[in-house]
C-alpha cells in the first residue's frame, strides 16, 4: 500500500484533511475569495476568510458549500485542488485514495457532484461515508459492536443525528440547521432589538465568548460595534449571555427535537444501550456553552461532548480508512 490515503471532512464552514500516517494536516475555513471581474480565485481558506466583509466590491468571498452540499461546483473543485496541493500529497507514487464525509440525507446527484469534484482534484478512488458514522468513530465510539451508540454532530451547515450499531446507521436525521444558523439568529436578534447591523465575525465572537443555551448557566458581557440602522453611523452596544440564549432558543430547540425524534424511532434494545452509554456531541456546535446540560435534561440520558469535537470527523476518516484496509486484507488473506 504505497498510495497515500486521505480523509476529507468537507464541511460548510471548515475543511479538514487527514493524511494516513500524518494525522490532521489541514484545517481551514471553506471560503474562496473571487475577483468578480476576472472570475479568478484570489485566495482560499484562512486567507480568504480574513477578507470577508472587508474587500472592495469586485472581490467577493464565497462559501462554495451550503448546508453540507456543493452549491458551487467549480469553486468547490478549485478549493479542494488548492488544499490538496498545499498539503503536497501528489508527488508520492500513486494518486491518493480519498474518503469524504457527507450529510446523511443528500441526494444521489449531490453525492455525484462531491465525487466528481474530488476526482478532478486528483483522487484515484473516492469513497463517500456518512458524517455521523465517521464522527462517532472519531469520537472514540466502537460502532462495530452489536450495541447502540448515539451521536449528534452539529456542524456549520447541517446537524446530523444518528443511532449506530454493527457499523451502520440504524436511525438518523439530518437537518439544515447548525452553526451558521446560530450566527444568523444572533445577527437578526441584535438587528431587531438594537437596530444595529453587525458582521458575521462579530456574531461568531458573541457565540464563542458570551453565548449559552442553558438558562442561567453563564453570564458574560461583551461590547460589540456595528452600524446603527437609524443614523448610519458606527455604534457600540453591550450584549450579555441571557440575550444570546434568547436569540438561540428556537434553533437549539429544533436540534433537540431532531434528536428526540431519532430516539423515538430507535428499537428498544438499542435505546436501553443509549441510556447506559449516553449520547456524544461532536462538531463545532458541541462547543456551545451549556449544550450538554440542555440535551441531557431534554433527552433524559447522559450527554458528553467529545474530545476536540471539531476534529472528530477528520479523525474518524483516518480510522475508517484503516478499517477499510483491514477488511481488504481479510478478503485477500
Automatic annotation (TrEMBL):
List UniProt keywords, sorted A-Z: ATP-binding, Cell shape, Cytoplasm, Nucleotide-binding
Gene3D superfamilies cross-referenced by the UniProt entry: 3.30.420.40
Instruction: Please classify the protein's predominant subcellular localization into one broad category.
Output: cytoplasm
Question: What are the binding positions for ATP in this chain?
Answer: 12-14, 156-158, 204-207, 284-287
Which Gene Ontology molecular-function terms are recorded? ATP binding
- The keyword ATP-binding appears for this protein: yes
In terms of InterPro entries, this protein maps to: ATPase_NBD (IPR043129), MreB (IPR004753), MreB_MamK-like (IPR056546)
Its subunit composition reads:
Forms polymers.
Summary of the function given for this chain in its UniProt record = Forms membrane-associated dynamic filaments that are essential for cell shape determination. Acts by regulating cell wall synthesis and cell elongation, and thus cell shape. A feedback loop between cell geometry and MreB localization may maintain elongated cell shape by targeting cell wall growth to regions of negative cell wall curvature.
The protein in question is named: Cell shape-determining protein MreB
Native organism taxonomy: Bacteria, Bacillati, Bacillota, Bacilli, Bacillales
Q: Which gene encodes it?
A: mreB
Amino acid at each position: 500500500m504505497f498510495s497515500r490515503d486521505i480523509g476529507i471532512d468537507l464541511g460548510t464552514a471548515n475543511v479538514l484533511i487527514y493524511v494516513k500516517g500524518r494525522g490532521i494536516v489541514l484545517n481551514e475555513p471553506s471560503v474562496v475569495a473571487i475577483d468578480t471581474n476576472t472570475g479568478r480565485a484570489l485566495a482560499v481558506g484562512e486567507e480568504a476568510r480574513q477578507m470577508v466583509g472587508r474587500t472592495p466590491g469586485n472581490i467577493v468571498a464565497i462559501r462554495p458549500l451550503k448546508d453540507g452540499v456543493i452549491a458551487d461546483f467549480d469553486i468547490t473543485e478549485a478549493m479542494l485542488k488548492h488544499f490538496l496541493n498545499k498539503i503536497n500529497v501528489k508527488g508520492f507514487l500513486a494518486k491518493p485514495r480519498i474518503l469524504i464525509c457527507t450529510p446523511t440525507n443528500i441526494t444521489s446527484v449531490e453525492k455525484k457532484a462531491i465525487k466528481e469534484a474530488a476526482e478532478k482534484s486528483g483522487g484515484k478512488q473516492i469513497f463517500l461515508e456518512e458524517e455521523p458514522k465517521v464522527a462517532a468513530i472519531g469520537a472514540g465510539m466502537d460502532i462495530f459492536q452489536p450495541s447502540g451508540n448515539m451521536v449528534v454532530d452539529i456542524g456549520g451547515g447541517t446537524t446530523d443525528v444518528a443511532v449506530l450499531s454493527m457499523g451502520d446507521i440504524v436511525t438518523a436525521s439530518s437537518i439544515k440547521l447548525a452553526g451558521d444558523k446560530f450566527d444568523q439568529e444572533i445577527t437578526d436578534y441584535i438587528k431587531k432589538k438594537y437596530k444595529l447591523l453587525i458582521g458575521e465575525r462579530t456574531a461568531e465572537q458573541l457565540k464563542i465568548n458570551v453565548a449559552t443555551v442553558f438558562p442561567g448557566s453563564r453570564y458574560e458581557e461583551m461590547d460589540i460595534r456595528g452600524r446603527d440602522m437609524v443614523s448610519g453611523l458606527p455604534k457600540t452596544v453591550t450584549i450579555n449571555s441571557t440575550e444570546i440564549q434568547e436569540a438561540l432558543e428556537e434553533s437549539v430547540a429544533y436540534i433537540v427535537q431532531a434528536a428526540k425524534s431519532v430516539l423515538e424511532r430507535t428499537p428498544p434494545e438499542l435505546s436501553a444501550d443509549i441510556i447506559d452509554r449516553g449520547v456524544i456531541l461532536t462538531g463545532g456546535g458541541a462547543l456551545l456553552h451549556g449544550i450538554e446540560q440542555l440535551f441531557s435534561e431534554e433527552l433524559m440520558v447522559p450527554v458528553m461532548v467529545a474530545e476536540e469535537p471539531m476534529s472528530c470527523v477528520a479523525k474518524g476518516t483516518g480510522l475508517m480508512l484503516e478499517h477499510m484496509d483491514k477488511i481488504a486484507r481479510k478478503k485477500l488473506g
